[in-house]
C-alpha cells in the first residue's frame, strides 16, 4: 500500500548539511522551516516520509515532511518541516534562523501513497501537530484536483492558538475542500466547533465506499477516529495512519522504534489501519 | 403536525432502531422549532421540558463560570440530539444551549414522552435504548478531552 524509498544504506548514517532558508512561526512553540542544499541534495521525499534532523552539538530528532517541494526549486529540492519545541533538540531547531545549518538524513520510511487514492474521495483527519505530516497529502491532491473526488480535511487542536496553518485552512476551505476545525478548549473569541475531531466525521460529506482516509495525530485520537470512519463504512484497508516511536537510525538497524513485528522507521510510519489496529490496542509490547 | 414531523425524522439513522409504531408515537409529541443565530434555547438550571433533534445548524452547549462568563464546552451539529436532562429527576438543565447559526430542529415535549414511557414499558425501553448511546457517546468524547491528548508536557494541567 505505502511505499518506502529509503536512501542507500551506506549514506544513511551521515547527516547532509542543509541551510535554513525560511522560518515561519506557526504557534508559540511550533515553526515551519524550509531547508535547502544546492550542492548535494538528498533524494526526493514523499509525503509521509520523515527526516532525521540534527541540531549540531545538541542531537537528532525524526521530523516528517510537512510540505511538497515546489517544482520551481529544481534539483535543490527544498525540504519543509514543521516542528514543535518540546525537548532540547527541537528547541534548538525551533530557534534556527535563516542561514543556520541543520543536518538532514533521509528520506526514511513509508509514504502516504497519495496517488493510490486517485479516483476516490479523500478524507484527511489530523490532530494537533499531526496536521503537519498530512499537509503534503492535501497539497498533492490539490495539485491534481481533478483526479480525486470529494476532499475532506478535519482538524482538531487543543486551543485555537495551537492551530497550525490557519491561513491555509481558510484557503483550502475556499478551494473545494470541506474543512472542519474543532478545538478542545475554546478561547472567548472562538466561534467554531468545540469537541473532539471524531465528532466531525458523521456529518462530513464523503462516500465511505469510495474513499481513502489519511489519519495522523496522537494514537488515542487515531483509534477513535478510525472507529468513527469504520462506523461510516470505510474499509480498514483504505484507512492509513502514521505511527511514531523512538526513531533513531532510520533504516531498521537499531530496533529502537520496534512495534511488535514492525520497525516503524522502515515499515512505517505510514501503515494500513488493518495492520496497525491490533498493535495500537496492545497495552505493552 | 405529526405527519410532518414523521416525514422529517423517519429516514434518520438515529431513529432506525424504533418500530414504526413507536416512532409514530414519539412524533406525536414533536413540533418543528426554529432558532435565530445567537438565540438561547435553554439556560442552565432551567426546567428540562423538551429535547431536540437538530435538523440543520449547530448548537453551543455552555456553562456559566463566575468571572469568565458563558464558557462553551461542546458543539452539537446536525442530526445530533440536544438534551437528555429531561430523562431523569430533577429534570433541570445541567448546561445551557445557544444556537450558533440558524437552527431548524424538531422539539419534543419531554413530559409527554415520559408519560408515554410510564404508560408503556416497551415504549420506555425503546426510548432508553435510543438515548443511552447518545449519553455514552458524549461521555466518551468528554473522557477523550480529559486526556488532553494534544498537550505537550509543558501544557499539561494548564488551561
Give descriptors for this structure.
heterodimer; A: 285 residues; alpha/beta; Elongation Factor Tu (Ef-tu), domain 3; Rossmann fold; 2 domains; seven-stranded mixed β-sheet; six-stranded antiparallel β-barrel; 6 helices; 19% helix; globular; B: 159 residues; alpha+beta; Jelly Rolls; four-stranded antiparallel β-sheet; 4 helices
Describe the protein in words.
The complex is a heterodimer of chains A (285) and B (159). Chain A contains 6 helices and 15 strands. Chain A has 285 residues and is α/β, with parallel strands linked by helices. A 7-stranded mixed β-sheet of chain A has the order 10-9-8-7-11-12-15, sandwiched between helices. The longest helix of chain A is centred in the C-terminal third of the chain and has 14 residues. The radius of gyration of chain A is 18 Å and the shape is globular. By secondary structure, chain B is α+β, with helices and mostly antiparallel strands. Chain B contains 4 helices and 8 strands. Chain B starts with a helix and ends in a 13-residue tail after the last helix. Classes of the chains: A alpha/beta (285), B alpha+beta (159). Chains A and B meet through strand 10 and helix 4 of A and strand 5 and helix 4 of B.
Topology, please?
The complex is a heterodimer of chains A (285) and B (159).
Chain A lengths: L15 E12 L2 E7 L13 E6 L3 E9 L11 E6 L3 H7 L6 E8 L12 E7 L3 H13 L7 E7 L8 H8 L4 E6 L9 E2 L16 E6 L2 H14 L6 E4 L15 E2 L2 E2 H4 L2 E3 H8 L5
Parallel strand pairs in A: 7-8, 7-11, 8-9, 9-10, 11-12
Antiparallel strand pairs in A: 1-2, 1-6, 2-5, 3-4, 3-6, 4-5, 12-15, 13-14
Chain B lengths: L1 H8 L10 H8 L2 E6 L4 E3 L7 E7 L2 E7 L3 E8 L4 E2 L13 E4 L3 E7 H10 L1 H26 L13
Antiparallel strand pairs in B: 1-8, 2-7, 3-6, 3-8, 4-5, 4-7
Helix pairs in contact in B: 3-4
Amino acid at each position: 500500500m505505502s511505499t518506502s524509498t529509503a536512501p542507500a544504506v551506506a549514506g544513511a548514517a551521515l547527516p547532509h548539511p542543509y541551510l535554513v532558508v525560511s522560518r515561519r512561526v506557526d504557534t508559540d512553540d511550533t515553526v515551519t522551516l524550509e531547508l535547502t542544499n544546492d550542492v548535494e541534495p538528498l533524494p526526493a521525499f514523499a509525503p509521509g516520509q520523515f527526516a532525521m534532523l540534527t541540531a549540531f552539538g545538541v542531537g537528532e530528532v525524526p521530523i516528517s515532511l510537512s510540505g511538497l517541494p515546489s517544482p520551481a526549486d529544481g534539483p535543490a529540492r527544498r525540504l519543509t518541516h514543521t516542528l514543535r519545541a518540546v525537548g532540547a533538540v527541537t528547541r534548538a531547531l525551533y530557534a534556527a534562523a535563516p542561514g543556520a545549518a541543520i543536518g538532514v538524513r533521509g528520506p526514511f520510511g513509508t509514504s502516504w501513497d497519495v496517488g493510490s487514492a486517485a479516483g476516490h474521495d479523500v478524507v484527511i483527519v489530523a490532530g494537533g501537530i499531526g496536521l503537519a505530516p498530512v499537509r503534503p497529502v492535501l497539497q498533492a491532491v490539490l495539485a491534481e484536483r481533478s483526479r480525486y473526488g470529494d476532499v475532506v480535511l478535519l482538524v482538531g487542536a487543543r486551543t485555537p492558538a495551537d492551530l497550525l496553518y490557519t491561513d491555509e485552512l481558510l484557503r483550502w476551505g475556499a478551494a473545494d475542500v470541506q474543512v472542519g476545525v474543532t478545538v478542545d478548549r475554546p478561547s472567548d473569541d472562538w466561534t467554531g466547533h468545540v469537541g473532539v475531531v471524531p465528532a466531525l466525521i458523521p456529518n462530513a460529506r464523503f462516500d465511505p465506499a469510495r474513499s481513502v482516509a489519511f489519519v495522523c495525530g496522537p494514537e488515542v485520537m487515531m483509534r477513535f477516529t478510525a472507529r468513527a470512519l469504520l462506523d461510516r463504512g470505510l474499509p480498514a484497508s483504505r484507512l492509513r495512519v502514521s505511527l511514531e516511536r523512538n526513531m533513531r537510525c532510520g533504516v531498521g538497524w537499531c530496533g529502537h522504534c520496534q512495534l511488535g513485528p514492525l520497525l516503524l522507521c522502515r515499515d512505517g510510519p505510514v501503515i494500513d489501519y488493518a495492520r496497525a489496529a491490533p498493535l495500537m490496542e496492545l497495552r505493552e509490547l | 403536525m405529526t405527519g410532518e414531523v414523521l416525514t422529517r425524522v423517519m429516514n434518520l439513522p438515529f431513529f432506525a432502531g424504533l418500530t414504526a409504531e413507536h416512532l409514530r408515537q414519539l412524533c406525536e409529541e414533536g413540533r418543528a422549532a426554529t432558532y435565530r443565530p445567537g438565540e438561547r434555547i435553554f439556560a442552565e438550571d432551567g426546567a428540562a421540558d423538551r429535547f431536540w433533534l437538530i435538523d440543520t445548524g449547530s448548537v453551543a452547549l455552555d456553562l456559566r463560570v463566575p468571572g469568565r462568563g458563558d464558557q462553551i464546552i461542546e458543539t452539537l451539529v446536525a442530526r445530533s440530539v440536544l438534551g437528555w436532562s429531561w430523562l431523569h429527576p430533577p429534570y433541570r438543565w445541567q448546561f445551557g444551549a445557544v444556537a450558533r447559526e440558524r437552527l431548524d430542529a424538531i422539539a419534543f415535549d419531554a413530559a409527554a414522552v415520559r408519560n408515554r414511557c410510564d404508560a408503556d414499558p416497551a415504549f420506555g425501553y425503546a426510548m432508553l435504548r435510543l438515548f443511552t448511546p447518545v449519553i455514552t457517546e458524549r461521555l466518551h468524547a468528554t473522557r477523550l478531552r480529559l486526556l488532553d491528548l494534544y498537550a505537550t508536557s509543558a501544557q499539561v494541567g494548564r488551561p
